[in-house]
Amino acid sequence: PSAALEAVQPFAEVMKSSVWLLLLLTGIVAAVTEEFIFRGYLSRVLEATGLGLWGGALVSALIWAGMHVYYPLSAQLSLVAVGVALSIVRARTGSLYPGMAWHILNNTVALLALRVIGG
Prior knowledge:
By secondary structure, this protein is mainly alpha-helical. 90% of the residues lie in helices and 0% in strands. The protein contains four helices and no strands. The chain starts with a helix and ends with a helix. The relative contact order is 0.14.
């Protein structure tokens, strides 16, 4: 994890100076990209392997949560639950848009809270 954090440090420094750039890249682009990859693709592929909706949702959520190595384990466990829920929403609605909207809102609120709290 520390090597990964060191690798993104230059980007983090640039983004600290611009809340709009931070919101665009992390709040929107990352959220939309993750929804396409994890709920739009991976979850569906895993479902088709015989894992079914719940199995595909769980495995893709575990991988997604595992990517967030900079979060404490308790937060990663919460991400597993959120990832499963987002896959179920995608399956029930037939659309990635509700999950994208939630993910963008979540990331944006978290980023703004960190900016306010963190100074």
